[in-house]
Amino acid sequence: xxxxxxxxxxxxxxxxxxxxxxxxxxxxxxxxxxxxxxxxxxxxxxxxxxxxxxxxxxxxxxxxxxxxxxxxxxxxxxxxxxxxxxxxxxxxxxxxxxxxxxxxxxxxxxxxxxxxxxxxxxxxxxxxxxxxxxxxxxxxxxxxxxxxxxxxxxxx
Length: 156
Hints:
The chain has helices at 19-23, 30-41, 71-79, 97-111, 115-129, 138-147, 151-154; strands spanning 2-9, 48-56, 61-66, 93-95, 131-133. It is of the alpha+beta class.
């Protein structure tokens, strides 16, 4: 088995780079691989998604494994922004604490940490990107998580 790692836009992989140059020498049907990737990543439309294509060069069979989009990509989608704030003076966008918790829950399986820690990582990404949480600096939300003010959201 050979594995090809690539990052594609959710639901919009094409039979060109980065997939075709890596898959063509293996003799696999690139159109079928692209169709499978697009089907599996359609829920991540507008986000960059890591994918792994496992190919058996002898049988030309393949499987596709879709990873979780980077936290920043999910934040951008949820906040409805194209990119984070460059100058940090004006916020790039805003998330509710509930959406931040939902992002943390989706990332927890890939990071394997406690939900509280994963939520603080998501909020830290918000700080870096200039995204506010409930209209305030995300650092305040991190402080509130440390104080236990959002524990009710972390249950379940």
